[in-house]
Design a protein that fits this description.
Blueprint: H1 2-16, H2 24-30, H3 35-46, H4 50-68, H5 73-79, H6 85-96, H7 100-106, E1 116-119, E2 128-131, H8 134-142, E3 147-153, H9 156-163, H10 165-182, E4 188-191, E5 196-200, H11 206-217, E6 223-226, E7 229-232, E8 235-241, H12 249-265, E9 270-271
Parallel strand pairs: 8-9
Antiparallel strand pairs: 1-2, 3-5, 3-8, 4-5, 6-7
């Protein structure tokens, strides 16, 4: 239970201070932990470094600002505690694979790394890592009776194992790029897991949804380049419909993952109503 509170306090402190100047020691002090103990606990629970998490959260918010605000790149860099546009651009490129100015022209999606959530399972450590889906939940309550396409990467674990986590991050980014670039402007894309994504459409015809899914999956097998190795990237797709405005947040993961499980069991796009 103590570890649960330590991680809760650490994540909340980071979220509250993304636009402020703070150190890793400040995070540890805020959750009454030694820095070495916090780093070990954070890495063990989330398989992610504390510093890397902070950077990914800042680059997620920075991307949202680039798309939504009329702020200069310099202003956004300073907002998220980068001393110069050049330093900010390098950090941004590491996460997004492109420069901030190019990103504004190429992307509509910005939620590359949502806030981490987790549940206490009654044991000594948290076993269920999740991502914050509150924005998706609010959208689904207002956009009812529309289909949601749920995507799952193929062989993600193999990519991480054979080529490393950096290659895995590139593979995730490529999947998001394909979905984002081939979907209509009215569609909204969310990352709902490590290698799972949800595309909320305005479509109410299952055949139109199937066509959209096939258009995206037609790119399966195309490769990304990592350290001179060409890595084929593919996804599966399942589909569900959120009916009514009384969807419960605690059931959202279950509803979406049923569609993903259906996609894993079927060769064609799985439509679940």
């Amino acid at each position: 239970m103590k570890n649960f509170y330590i991680l809760t306090d650490a994540i909340n402190y980071i979220e509250d201070n993304l636009c402020n100047d703070f150190t890793l020691e400040d995070v540890a002090e805020a959750c009454y932990s030694s820095l070495s103990g916090l780093k070990k606990l954070f890495g063990y629970t989330f398989h992610l470094g504390l510093k890397e998490y902070i950077s990914k959260r800042r680059m997620t918010h920075a991307a949202q600002d680039l798309l939504k605000l009329d702020s200069s790149i310099t202003d956004i860099a300073l907002k998220y505690q980068y001393n110069s546009p050049e330093v900010f651009t390098r950090a941004f490129f590491k996460i997004w694979g492109t420069t901030p100015s190019a990103f504004k022209k190429q992307w509509r999606f910005a939620g590359i790394f949502p806030k981490l959530l987790f549940e206490y399972d009654g044991g000594t450590i948290m076993s269920r890592r999740k991502l914050d889906l509150s924005e998706l939940y609010d959208l689904l309550k207002s956009r009812t009776n529309s289909y949601v396409l749920c995507f799952d990467m193929i062989e993600m674990e193999a990519i991480n194992c054979n080529y490393g986590r950096e290659a895995g991050d590139k593979a995730i980014l490529e999947c998001l790029r394909r979905i984002d670039s081939l979907s209509e402007e009215s569609c909204l894309l969310f990352r709902i897991g490590g290698d799972e994504f949800a595309l909320v459409t305005n479509l109410q015809d299952s055949e139109e949804v199937r066509k959209l899914g096939h258009r995206i999956l037609a790119l399966n097998g195309q490769t990304i380049l990592h350290n001179n190795a060409e890595i084929p990237i593919g996804m599966r797709a399942g589909c569900t419909k959120i009916i009514g405005s009384n969807v419960r947040y605690k059931d959202l993961y279950t509803d979406l993952y049923k569609a993903i499980e259906g996609a894993r069991e079927n060769n064609s796009i799985y439509i679940m109503v």
